[in-house]
Description:
The protein has helices at residues 9-12, 17-46, 55-61, 77-80, 110-113, 125-136, 145-158, 164-177, 196-211, 221-237, 241-255, 275-295, 322-354, 359-378, 386-391, 397-424, 430-450, 461-480, 491-505, 512-524. It contains 20 helices and no strands.
Amino acid sequence: MPSPAGEPTSATAGFDPASLAILAKLEELQSEVGSLSSRLQEQGSHSPLAAQDSPHTRLTQASSVLHLDHHLQRGNISQVLAWDIWQPHEPPQCLVATEEQGADPTSISSRQAEGLGQDLDLSLFTGYLNAFFCNVHPLNPVLDEHQIRAQLTSSLLNGIGWDAGSCLLLLVLANGACSSEFGEVSMAGATSGRDEHQWANAQGLFDAAEKRKNTLWRSDYLTQARCHFYSGIFMMVSMRPFDAWRHFLQGLATCQRLIVPAHHRGPRDPVPVDKQAKESIYWSCWKSERELRFELDMPNFSSAGYDHPIMFPALPPQVIDQEQLRAWYFYLAEISLWRSEMTARDTLSEFVKQQPSALEALADRIVDLQTSLASWQASLPDAINLNAGIQNSTVDVLHFVLQGRLTYNYEVLTWPFLETLLLFGAHRNARASELASRGVRVHYDRLSINRPGFYYRHHGTWLMQRSSTRSACILLAVARSNSSDLLPPGWQALVSDTIAMLEYWSKTPEDETVVFLKSVLFEVMQ
Length: 526
């Protein structure tokens, strides 16, 4: 029996006649399927209905095809760049770099192998600790300053130990060494504005802490969680978001042991764990992991749910001065914004389950959530009042971060209306149109708020770059749509400044995202 066409005789020499007949039938079927596929593609390319596959035209066929659950949660920059509105431009992939260029996370430097290198000047440690409590700790006040300072004094007298407490101290010093005051910016470049020797010391301190992490498993869970958290903070400053996320996730997992009932505590659980200490580190790990998860494109981690820790940290029993009190006001306000955002996401999700296509009804529901946000803003203490911060000409990092966090909440409330406007065209409902217009303003405001921190390197810089890029893309998308009249005056200058900021931080001379944004901005300004 001859072999099937195209099948080498040697490949079927050992087959019985029945198997050869089956192979012949399979090849015949494959040929027919291929022929049918070719005919369908040829027909589709000439069919006037082919354009209906685009999300731009789905809504025009029938309003019932609008599925709000597809447009409920704001997209990250990669999802925004996937919109058809950019055609004929080819947007970049905008992939997340998992490590800094040239970094090898598996290699151990000579400094790390030696522990604390001889070139590290111990006399600088007190200055690094002061910088930490001035620049880093106010954004996440999860440590006892008096306790940490006492530990540094002991370490300077007796040497750095090889226990978990020394690991935490070294991480604190590393974060202090690479920190700077808000407003200390350099237009000369992303690295030249920082003292290279100071950054080398920071890396050396971090490497020394890493060398001591094998002691964590024998320590209490509170110290473990703090070490994982500050490792994540250092990775964020180093622009390594994926590695930071891994540390935050591990810290959050460790925090689960901090909330177990007393009768379930193990020998490594501190007894008793200070309620304020465990709740604050839990929240810091949770919000840090969650905001990175929203932004990183990782399989099986795209959905994070809308739950949040039930506990709400209380003020520490002893607050030394007004600056500490102000930092805690900020911290609690930021946590309340996170709770508000998760509640809004959950509320909108449940509403859409009941009315999956009712955009107008969803707009009515948004009003109550906006009222809650306005009430929250009005209730802020004078020390962190956002209106006072706007009127004050002094640049303040707490106002900067809190205003930026607030834009995320408004983005959640306006995203469904803005995205459907850009994908499907003008809304027929006045309130939906108003919310879409408000959404445009949110992205304009974000760039205005972020601009003072465009060149400030801290643990939120990478996220600032991503959110600013997304907002710049939104404004450019509106400019390319039929709703360009919604753009506020001066939006081009903000987008241009955003592009300059991305160039400043870019590791490559011709960054794809920068090139893309420049080409689209040039087009819409013609």
